[in-house]
Structure to design on (276 residues):
């Protein structure tokens, strides 16, 4: 009879399942980026959040800047929707020579430095330019007017709307439009009755993104219009005039207000995911 074989002893740690190294690196990289993005904003809110909320009710300059920023951004977004929706439909539904060039040119305002965008707008709409001179004589001055703010916001944020609207329309099945047209609808009626309702959430989400981008614009606006001041220009002015301590509550208030369009955007996208 053979003696019982001895049971081999498992080495220490052999029963622990270590995650793959790829998962560890992925989690570390994601955590590092999240920390980098959230830490400055969190520190700003912690230091100035309470003071910022008080400033919203007591600081007349901040209130005026907020109101100016809100309605000029709304006008810029309305113009972007009115002018950008037909362009988005053309890019989504039509194939034509130079389509790639048009798409690239459309994205150009997103990649050039925004002070450069302001300089370019100033060349076209400044008082010394042909167009700016005609507009000024007609009572539509651009430089140092709210209209200049609207143009600056529109220039830098409209590409975001057109890009999002184009994607939303491209996701609509063409067969629905074809069925509507075989039933007697004109292309415009098919667009209004079929394409527009099916793409409406995407269009609305794109408009929210455009509005949020317009609100935060600084570089293009400050070249065209230093006064009256939007909230971004006001923040910069107070930083350069009074220093960091004075601008922290204002900046914190802006961060808190910026959460509103982000929450609206997430709600819209959640609705799209449920529909899908």
């Amino acid at each position: 009879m053979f003696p019982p074989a001895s049971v081999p002893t498992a080495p220490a740690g052999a029963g622990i399942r270590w995650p793959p190294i790829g998962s560890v690196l992925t989690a570390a990289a994601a955590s590092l980026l999240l920390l980098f993005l959230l830490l400055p904003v969190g520190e700003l809110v912690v230091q100035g959040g309470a003071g910022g909320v008080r400033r919203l009710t007591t600081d007349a300059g901040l209130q005026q800047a907020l109101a100016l920023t809100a309605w000029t951004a709304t006008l810029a977004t309305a113009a972007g929707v009115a002018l950008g929706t037909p362009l988005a439909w053309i890019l989504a539904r039509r194939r034509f020579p130079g389509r790639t060039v048009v798409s690239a040119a459309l994205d150009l305002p997103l990649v050039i430095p925004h002070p450069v965008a302001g300089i370019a707008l100033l060349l076209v709409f400044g008082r010394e330019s042909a167009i700016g001179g005609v507009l000024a004589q007609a009572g539509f001055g651009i430089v140092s007017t709210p209209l200049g703010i609207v143009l600056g916001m529109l220039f830098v944020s409209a590409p975001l709307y057109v890009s999002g609207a184009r994607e939303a329309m491209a996701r609509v099945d063409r067969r629905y439009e074809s069925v509507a047209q075989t039933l007697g609808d004109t292309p415009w009626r098919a667009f209004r009755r079929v394409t527009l309702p099916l793409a409406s959430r995407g269009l609305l989400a794109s408009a929210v993104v455009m509005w949020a981008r317009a609100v935060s614009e600084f570089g293009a606006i400050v070249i065209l219009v230093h006064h009256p001041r939007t909230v971004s220009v006001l923040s910069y002015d107070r930083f350069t005039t009074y220093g960091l301590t004075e601008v922290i509550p204002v900046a914190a208030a802006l961060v808190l207000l910026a959460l509103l369009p982000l929450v609206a955007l997430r709600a819209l996208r959640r609705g799209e995911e449920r529909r899908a």
Observations:
- The two ends are 70 Å apart (CA to CA).
- The mean pLDDT is 86.
- Residues 65 and 229 are 6 Å apart (CA to CA).
- DSSP finds twelve helices and no strands in the chain.
